[in-house]
Amino acid sequence: MELMANRAEGKVTYRNPVLPGFYPDPSAIRVGEDYYMVTSTFEYFPGVPVFHSKDLIHWEQIGHVLTRESQVNLLGRNSSEGIYAPTLRYHDGMFYMITTDVYGIGNFYVTAEDPAGPWSDPIRIPHGNIDPSLFFDDDGKVYVSAQAGFGETSHIIQYEIDIRTGSALSEPVVVWEGDEGPWVEGPHLYKINGFYYMMTASGGTGPMHREIIGRSITPYGPFDMLPHPILTHNQLKDHPIQYTGHVELIDDIHDGWWALFLGIRPQGGKGSVLGRETFLAPVTWTEDGWPMIDNNEGHVSLLMEAGTSAGQAARRSQASPGERSMTKFAAQGLGLEWFHTRSIPGTDEMSFTEREGCLRLSGNACGLREGGANVFVCRRQQHHRMRIETRLNFAPRRDGEQAGIAARLSDKSYYSLGIAKKEGQTGILVTAMTQGTGTETFTPIKEQVPVRLSIRSDELAYELLYTLGGASAEWISLGTLPAEALTPDAEGAFTGVCLGMFAVGTEAGHSAPAYYDYFEYEGMLE
Q1: What radius of gyration, in Å, describes the C-alpha atoms of the chain?
Q2: Distance (Å, rounded) from C-alpha 307 to C-alpha 12?
Q3: Residue 173 pairs with which residues in a beta bridge?
Q4: Are strands 294-295 and 210-216 parallel, antiparallel or unpaired?
Q5: Contact 500, 408 (CB under 8 A)
Q6: Torsion from C-alpha of 116, 122, 127, 130, nearest 10 degrees
Q7: Which residues make Cβ contacts (< 8 Å) with residue 437, sequence separation at least 6?
Q8: Is 255 tagged catalytic?
Q9: What is the pLDDT of residues 132-157, one digit of tens each?
Q10: Lowest-confidence range among 7-16, 82-91, 278-287, 503-512?
């Protein structure tokens, strides 16, 4: 898939989402001619990926914000807890990322002179529930806007802080109650053309999701609300993009305005295993000064055409929607697209140097369903139609040991395929765990040879396969499992499916070493 520009007409065509897969709650800034963006990560670690772009369409990950246990410890977090809705800001040579560690230390921010890191240890702030945002005013004052309340009682509070310490300089006051919908959240305060704009999501991050906005001549309001959303698809039931909202407004270097926001690409009228993805759309301003994106008009689409400023900003080819990547393991570790559940495994659990060209995993007593410090090394699924493959050398010593690959939504919902020992026999174990209820299928194998494992998916199902042969050997299918069971909608999860390698030990100790020779991901054109 390519970006296509008609320079004569000043038009540019690009494809959504600009960040496919589990990249929700985007927040972005422009610093000179460069754009930076962060997204939510919940229970995964390292937390909060940082992306860089020159045109808002092509994004390259340059680091993570939260990379040390001194910043955040997620070992006690359940699925879809942890790091929510970060906001990225820049002021006077310093980058700021503010977020919430849900069921952890609460609201905090960190700082860095370079967005690629390293970032500071947390500076905690005293008030607010989730989704804090920072605003630096022209007079030097710094404000926190944050969600408070629960469900139907959600509202936005605001207060001034000392940016050096995080201490509150004023008492929090209610500044925005939204449009009477539940979950008024994700606030951003902007100052544009002399007005202060308060913008939030409303309706919950599901079918009724929408973005609403108000404006005032003071940062505390009162804010006059635009009587309709600036972005929603909640009346377009057949549109290929749903759940749109949680918007960040950003200006480009050519005086154009854009919106980055989350949405999903539902399959078969259901949710999407990919979770909430990051989309991009141009913003138009009405004559009386309101930003507009798409209020059930269908302007936001998978293939977008934008005007002159976008055509000037975006002149390179966009990455193909089809992707094939082969990870060969080396001593320096994994690329930035890889992460882990809750923490980076220690040397007892993971090594890149024990056997040249291999990743070695040794499982502990925490399996995929137990959560905690389980050993799962993964990347996001970014295509509904995709294939993963690895070659695994693993000789389990005790019943209960296993190693393999998995498609994971949460601790309660995942499909896994691997080598295991059961009742003294070694074989291929398939586990289908959905909403906490699991089934297993065990196929004994006689040969202690490297096993190639694969998971393939389309819009409807995941297929799990293995072979004991070489590159030309026939794959043996162990069945298909419904994709719908791994959609966030089925469980109320906030994440999307992640794909990777795992190992499980027992209470008696770590598992035998599992050696992975490579990990291949292939996503197909949709």
Answers
A1: 23
A2: 7
A3: 158
A4: unpaired
A5: yes
A6: 50
A7: none
A8: no
A9: 999 999 999 999 999 999 999 999 99
A10: 7-16
Selecting among 131, 185, 248, 401, the annotated active-site residue is 185
Q: Is CATH 3.40.1000.10 what the domain over 19-282 is classified as, yes or no?
A: no
Active site residue 185: yes
Domain ranges of the chain: 19-282, 323-523
- The answer to whether 64 and 72 are in contact (CB under 8 A) is no
Q: Could you count the other beta carbons within 10 Å of the beta carbon of residue 526?
A: 17
pLDDT score at 84: 98
In SS3 terms, 346-413 reads as CCCCEECCCCCCCEEECCCCCCCCCCCCCEEEEEECCCCCEEEEEEEEECCCCCCCEEEEEEECCCCC
Q: C-alpha angle 266/272/273, rounded to 5°? A: 160
Rounded to whole angstroms, the Cα distance separating 49 from 57 reads 17
b/e burial code for range 68-92 (CB count within 10 A of at least 16 → b): eeebbebeebbbbbbbbbbbbbbee
- Report the relative pairing of strands 231-232 and 294-295 from DSSP bridges: parallel
Inter-CA distances, 264 with 206, 369, 433, 489, 525, Å:
9, 26, 23, 11, 17
Q: Is residue 492 helix, strand or coil?
A: coil
Put the strands of the sheet holding 375-380 in their side by side order: 44-45, 339-341, 375-380, 498-504, 402-408, 414-422, 425-434, 437-444
Q: 185 is written with which tokens?
A: 């959240």
For the domain made up of 323-523, give the CATH fold.
Jelly Rolls (2.60.120)
Note if the bond before 46 is cis, omega within 30 degrees.
yes
Which tokens hold the place of 248?
């960040």
Q: How far apart are CA 279 and CA 57, in angstroms?
A: 9
User: What pTM value is reported for the model?
Assistant: 0.95
Could you give the 3-state DSSP secondary structure of residue 152? helix
